[in-house]
Amino acid sequence: MATILVVDDELGIRALLSEILSDEGHTIELAQNAQQARAARERMRPDLVLLDIWMPDVDGVTLLKEWGSSGLLTMPVIMMSGHGTIDTAVEATKFGAMAFLEKPITLQKLLRAVEQALVKTTPRPAAPTSAPAVGMPNPYPRPESLPPMTVGAMPMATAGLAPIAPMPHQGLASEQVFELDRPLREARDAFEKSYFEFHLAKENGSMTRVAEKTGLERTHLYRKLKQLGVDLSRNKRGTGI
């Protein structure tokens, strides 16, 4: 994983980006202005910088130019702005920025930009002595490919769910059968709870990846899990998400 410096004068933006990127396993350093960004860049030598354009003391493009002219632009920089224009994006790219993200930044765009920036700056590993098998099926099917009204999951105590013995090819996974002789809302809630518990278990409690897999924004996902009574504490990895 990478060390990422997030530079933004808005506390809420810094906190949100830190939470999302920490959830992905990255080490995050925060700075709220150019002065703190300079010190952090010198101290930690980040693998990537997320840099806001509009800041109160020195704007992000000026700081980018400063790093470039002094030979300190040794890491990829992704610019961010809520008031960006095409001209601003072109200017930032001209002075060394790798990408430009317009606020509000969606989860998918953020993770894609970070991944692409890190891939472009990471040396490719040596080719393995034996090539991996090609054309192997994906062991984790997307949610829409799961059989109707069934979901592979870990053992659960959800009312109305009766576990079936796992098939030989399923390993530790099992299928759940849902009681249909019950009010629609209860049956739907039981299914949704199993569905989200399944994805939380599969993604080791990563709310970011569960949000991506299920197509929900993180705030909506949190509310949904709370409403369904999903226990998040047992799914968290280590110290948190």
TrEMBL record:
Q: Which domain of life is it from?
A: Bacteria
Stored InterPro entries: Bact_response_regulator, CheY-like_superfamily, Homeodomain-like_sf, HTH_Fis, Sig_transdc_resp-reg_receiver
Coiled-coil segments on the chain, per record: none
* Entries under SMART domains matching the protein: REC
Gene3D superfamilies tied to this protein: 3.40.50.2300, Homeodomain-like (1.10.10.60)
Record-linked PROSITE patterns: RESPONSE_REGULATORY
Q: Name one Pfam family in it.
A: Response_reg
What keywords does the record list, in alphabetical order?
Phosphoprotein, Transcription, Transcription regulation, Two-component regulatory system
In this protein, which residues make up the domain named Response regulatory? 3-118
- GO term, biological process aspect, one: phosphorelay signal transduction system
- Report the GO molecular function annotations: sequence-specific DNA binding
Residue list for modification 4-aspartylphosphate: D52
**What is the name of the protein in this document?**
Two-component system response regulator
